[in-house]
Task: inverse folding
């Protein structure tokens, strides 16, 4: 069983829709990263969070450490949001060498 | 700032050949990482270096060696390439600031081993 599960695997939305991507994990963690991988392959770090909620522009990330669950929300989605979104928990007690990665959620936003 | 740079961008090797993937960062980060990404799988850590002069194995180190040449550079070497090493390789470095950790990724190297 994978330690990190993301859902859905693929998501198609219309421009303007509210998007939710979910991440569940089975190990104890101290923090969790959300990454964005562009269609060209480049990877950008969006958030690191260890509790509660963070907001950057139209992106909102939430985490519930006890329930072992995090969500990434995109408000007013736009075609430029089309990318793969990757959840990466940091194992408890680990250095950055203990990041584990989900397989990603591929988002396509249609105009 | 160029951020994290990787060379080459693309490489084709024959089984048994050797090569070194180069990575450099100009952000004065202490920690650097090498990952591989395969279709249908998440990123997997090959090796990392928490600071200049130290390296540690990650999840999938077999068939690879690394060198942390200085604070800027972290290279990944394949001594005898195998088709199973066909993958996209990403180098990353980490900035730690007031409890926040941000990973910066290079553009990736696509490696095909025939």
Result:
């Amino acid at each position: 069983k994978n330690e990190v599960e993301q859902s859905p695997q693929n998501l198609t939305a219309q421009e303007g829709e509210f998007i939710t991507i979910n991440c569940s994990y089975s190990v104890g963690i101290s923090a969790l990263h959300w990454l964005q991988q562009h269609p060209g392959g480049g990877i950008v770090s969006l958030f690191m969070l260890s509790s509660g909620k963070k907001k950057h522009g139209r992106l909102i990330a939430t985490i519930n450490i006890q329930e072992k669950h995090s969500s990434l929300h995109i408000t007013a989605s736009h075609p430029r949001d089309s990318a793969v979104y990757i959840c990466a928990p940091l194992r408890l007690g680990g250095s950055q060498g203990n990041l584990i990665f989900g397989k990603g959620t591929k988002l396509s936003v249609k105009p | 700032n160029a951020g994290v740079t990787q060379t080459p961008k693309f490489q084709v090797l024959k089984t048994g050949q050797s090569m070194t993937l180069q990575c450099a960062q100009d952000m004065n980060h202490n920690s650097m990482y090498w990952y591989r990404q395969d279709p249908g799988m998440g990123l997997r850590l090959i090796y990392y270096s928490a600071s200049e002069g130290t390296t540690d194995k990650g999840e999938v180190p077999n068939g690879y060696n690394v060198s942390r040449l200085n604070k800027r550079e972290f290279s990944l070497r394949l001594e005898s390439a195998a088709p199973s090493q066909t993958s996209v390789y990403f180098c990353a470095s980490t900035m730690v600031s007031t409890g926040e950790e941000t990973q910066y990724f290079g553009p990736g190297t696509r490696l095909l081993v025939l």
